[in-house]
Structures are given as structure tokens and as C-alpha cells.
Amino acid sequence: MTDIQQLSIDIDGMLAVFNSCNPLSATGTFDMEAVKHCIMQLCDLVVKNTEERDALKQWMIEKSDFFKGPASTRFHGNFEGGLAVHSLKVLHQALLFALPLLANYAVSPLKDSYSITAEDIFIAAITHDFCKANTYKVEYRNSKDVFGNWKKTPYYKTIEESRNLGHGNESVLELLEIMPSFIHRRHVLEAISRHMGFSDLSDSEKYNYSNFLDNPLVVLIQLADQTASQWYNL
Question: Among 22, 38, 127, 182, which is 20 to 30 Å from 56 by CA?
Fold first, then answer.
């Protein structure tokens, strides 16, 4: 069995789990409990290292606000639970795009450079925005309701004490603390680190950015992230 055949079987299994959980609709509605259940089921299905799998689940459930925090303060996923909803939508988009993208890569001159697994896709998609966990707080501003009455309106604000080495790089660091074996999967770390394309890079990092596009997982996660946020506003 070829790598692409195995990946096709694994992706079919993951999509079956997603469809059975029915966590997200095409119109942007979601069931938060179903979102959580779906991510946990997919984690159990594809993450091979049981110790690191447990550590990942514990981090999402107990050590962070992954299932409660927003994905941003003003843009996509700027609501309670938005980070988990966005991450699952990115995974779903990646699963839908993976086979045609990797089949095309498999006939390119670079075809023997990378081998991508379902676990790689799951980890890159679910953890790409881990840097956003424990990053936002709720504050309140005065605003008027439809009747002209003043009220306190909640909004998300970035915690001032946050320190950031770069959007994607912070997520890589968080992943490596949780699942240290991924230090040996550079292609996954690259996909997380470079998931925002040029928009999160210093001038020196932009110099060799095109080299990262040799990695099909980088392209896949960028495509999944952009379509999740721009097409579905999740």
C-alpha cells in the first residue's frame, strides 16, 4: 500500500468521525460540546504516542482555555470557544484539501521529499493557533442598546503581560512542551510556524520564505487556515 493510499483511508476515517459528531455547519453555527467531543475522538484516533496524546488532551481541557477562549479579538472566531471552533474548521478544511493537493505533489519533481501522515495533518491543524490560548481576557465598555440605554458590553482584549516570539513560533514552542517527540518532525513544525505566510515574518525570515513552500504541509495548513477564516468566518 502506498503512502497516499494509507492517507486516503485515514482521512476517510477522520471525516467519518467529523460527520458523526456534526460539530459545525456550513452556515457557521456550531455545537461547542460536539466540537470538544469531535477533537477528542480524532485525537484518540490518530495520535499514536499514548503519553503525548494524554498530555495534549490534558492541555486542551485543563491547562489552557483552548475550549473557552476566542480565536481573535475582532476578526474570525472572536467569541467564546472560537479558538477550538476555528482549529477544528482548519482541520476539516485540511482533510478536504489534503488528497488532491498531495496527489498533485506526488507527481512533482519534489515528490520524494516529504511523506505526510494523517497524524501530521491533525497536529499541525489543531495546534497551529495554540499561541492564542490563555492570551485574551474579557473587559467591558459602555455602549448603548437599541433603545438608547447605556449598558456594559463585554469584549476581548489581549493580556498586556503576554510575550510573543511570533505567532506561529509560539505555537511551535507550546506543542514541543506538550509533545516533545515532534522535535523530530520538522515538516510539522514548519507548517505550524509558517501557517500565516508572509504576514507573521520578520524581514530576515522573509528572505528564505519560499524554501518552506517545498513542504506540502506548509501549503496545506495555509490554505486550510485562510479558507476557514475567509470563506466561513470561523
Answer: 22
pLDDT tens figures, 157-173? 566 666 667 678 899 99
pLDDT at 145: 64
Residue type at 212 in one-letter notation? F
Cell numbers standing for residue 150:
447605556
Question: Which residues of the chain are under the pLDDT cut of 70?
Answer: 1, 72-77, 136-164, 166, 197-210
3-state SS, one letter per residue, for the chain: CCHHHHHHHHHHHHHHHHHHHCCECCCCCECHHHHHHHHHHHHHHHCCCHHHHHHHHHHHHHHCCCCCCCCCCCCCCCCCCHHHHHHHHHHHHHHHHHHHHHHHHCCCCCCCCCCCCHHHHHHHHHHCCHHHCCCEEEEEEEEECCCCCEEEEEEEEECCCCCCCCHHHHHHHHHHHHCHHHHHCHHHHHHHHCCCHHHHCCHHHHHCHHHHCCCHHHHHHHHHHHHHHHCCCC
pLDDT tens digit sequence for 92-126: 999 999 999 999 999 999 989 999 999 999 999 99
Instruction: Tell me the whole-structure pTM to 2 decimals.
Output: 0.87
Residue whose grid cell is 499541525: 124
C-alpha cell at 80: 467564546
